Amino acid sequence: MTAGVVRRVFGWFVHDRLTVMEIVRRLNDDTDIPLPPRSKTGAWTREVVARVLRNPLYRGWLRYGVTESVGFRPRTTRGRSAARSRSRSNRSRTCGWSRIPTGTRPKC
């Protein structure tokens, strides 16, 4: 999903105070706006727009320290062995939320 579409959805919701269904109508009426990723219906839906509005990353929050990689374990699939990464909850260590500064891009 492009940043421009996310900004537009939040602008309609916060500044214009549109309902989720009105946002869905506008997204589907504008042919310049691409469909959401993995769209099964070929259109924007109430569930997709609600998920965008609930997503903490789209609101500028990043969660850290929640899981950690604990290595590999062999896994067999149809007679073939495949390495698989395992992760587990990291509740005992420090974890939390961090605010992502707006207007800046991460340095590569």
From TrEMBL:
Gene Ontology terms for molecular function: DNA binding; DNA strand exchange activity
Spans annotated as Disordered: 74-108
One Pfam family here: Recombinase
Database matches in Gene3D superfamilies: Putative Large Serine Recombinase, Chain B, Domain 2 (3.90.1750.20)
Domain Recombinase: residue ranges: 3-80
InterPro entries assigned to the protein according to its UniProt record, in alphabetical order: DNA_bind_recomb_sf, DNA_bind_recombinase_dom
Name this protein carries in UniProt: Recombinase domain-containing protein
Compositional bias (Basic residues): 75-91
